[in-house]
Amino acid sequence: MNKITKEFLESEIVDVSYTRLSKTLTHCAITVKCGFVFTGESACVDESTFDEQIGRQIAYDNAFNSMWQPYGFWLAKTKE
Asked: For residues 28 and 56, is the Cβ–Cβ distance under 8 A?
């Protein structure tokens, strides 16, 4: 493998779970094949405008985006 791709990262995911921590705070946990868990959160300022689907998507995106750096480091180490 020469580079980390979105498709590769998605293939590493074995579980995604969401928890609503408060009226406006959503937490996402992405578990990958090795058992490591990447997390992301989203928060809405105004409870009256909270949309669960948007909160989940933002929390997921934040968790997913945190996967790039460690997997990139792993790829670099395999090239040594």
From this structure: yes
Is residue 80 pLDDT above 80, yes or no? no
Contacts of 26 (CB under 8 A, 6+ apart): 18, 19, 20, 41, 42, 43, 52, 55, 56, 58, 59
Residue in the block written with tokens 């579980």:
15
Q: Are 74 and 58 in contact (CB under 8 A)?
A: no
Q: Which pLDDT does position 78 carry in this prediction?
A: 87
Mean pLDDT of the chain, nearest integer: 96
**The pair of three-digit structure tokens given for residue 13, joined into one six-digit string:** 């995911």
Residues 5-11, mean pLDDT to the nearest whole number: 97
**Percent above pLDDT 90 for the chain:** 91
Distance CA 36, CA 39 (A): 10
Amino acid letter at 18?
A: Y
